[in-house]
Write a structure and sequence with these properties.
single chain, about 120 residues, mainly alpha, about 0% strand, membrane, transmembrane, transmembrane helix, DoxX family protein
Length: about 120
């Protein structure tokens, strides 16, 4: 079954974001809240999951579980987005208004992923 073009766009967004975790890890270390001790592991795991889930979105048998997993991943990384908006050292030089605007964007991404879950089919 051929997937809709916008699913491929979503897939590409996650794959590119995941690759960036490995290309520029120090950027992500700054936005991981300090109460997490192993920032390298968290960054690499997040990057790996984004790449894997981006690929799995395009595989018909895995689209459901990948979309659901992306929603879970977005929930899990949401504290980093809050931390980034609140603490100056995590802002990466971005304006505060943009960081607060970014928070609801996470929910838009969750809705986008939810769109691809077919509840009439098993998750796997």
């Amino acid at each position: 079954m051929e997937q809709p073009w916008h699913l491929y766009v979503m897939s590409l967004v996650y794959i590119v974001a995941g690759i960036n975790h490995f290309r520029n890890p120090k950027l992500y270390y700054k936005i991981i809240p300090p109460f997490f001790s192993n920032k390298k592991f968290i960054n690499e795991m997040t990057g790996f999951l984004e790449i894997l889930l981006g690929i799995c979105l395009c595989i018909s048998g895995f689209t459901n579980i990948a979309a659901l997993s992306i929603i879970v991943l977005l929930v899990v990384i949401f504290p980093a987005n809050i931390y980034m908006a609140i603490y100056k050292e995590a802002r990466l030089g971005l304006p505060v208004w943009l960081l607060y605007l970014r928070l609801p964007l996470q929910f838009v991404l969750m809705i986008w992923a939810y769109y691809y879950i077919d509840f009439s089919q098993p998750l796997l």
